[in-house]
Amino acid sequence: MSSASDNVTLSSSGSGSEWSGGDGSSRSDGGSGGQTVGMGRIPMETVSEVREDPLEEIAESNWSAKAGYKYVTEDVQTQHSFFKWSRLLKSWLNCIPILERNISRDIVALERVSGVDCVCHGQEGTTEGFFYMYMCQFSQLHVRLPFDDFTMGVLRLLKVTPTHLHPNSWAYLQALRVLY
Amino acid sequence: MIVISTPSLQSFLYFYDTRPKNPTTWLSLISRPGISRPKAFTQSFKHFKDDFFKVVVKELGRSYFYINDGNTKFPFNWTDNPWRYKDMKRERLSLADREVVETLMKFNDRLPTKGLVRVYNLIHPIVDIEGIILYF
User: What's the complex ipTM?
Assistant: First the structure.
């Protein structure tokens, strides 16, 4: 099953973009042209085919239901990401700044979300730590990575991950942050 | 002129209650009734729920997101026990926090939240989001 998380780097230059697949699945399975088989690094431009997740993968999620997340309300659990395709995500990220200035692009990799995952799902079976972010946090609220101590402190105090706090509340954080 | 030397999270949270009280869904900070506070962002986000993507921390970024013992600097997952509070008492604040709160209360009903967010827009000009949507 191709649950490999397609990876979008912040580099727009293409060459030297690094794939850092979290689950070790083969990038070439399903054969997107085949030209990249066995290569650890491929230029961004070759990411020409990004498929939607197979239907059975989505159906499967209904039964397995990620049972550990029953405490989260259903409207959260049933909301899947618009960014199922790397190319779509990449085209947005080309226009929307994610990082603070003077921060290396290599601190994070931004990835599309498979059709089975929702925003409250966690780290099961992944080797690299990750969290989710909403695009509007960057595009409209001008949040940038890495977060400052104030932002991380509030998240820690409230015991919420960035997507758990409603974007309207992020607006307060962003507004008041300049005063602190 | 505001002079606040050290960030004080309690003094920020003092101006809000959390909602909802019970189920685990998006947690909101709600301005406390009767307390002069920054105006709400005039735009209300409703259609954000499906626009999420993954941020994977790479080796080079670890120091920004992890503390030395390997724990993350903020939760990476949805938790079932966010801190919910209501009517934070001013007496519970430290002296420094109380000063911050009092300073903010003196004028902050005039603080346009949206305007402050726009400060970021000036610093980080972005492409008009509607233009991007048109692109699709």
Answer: 0.75
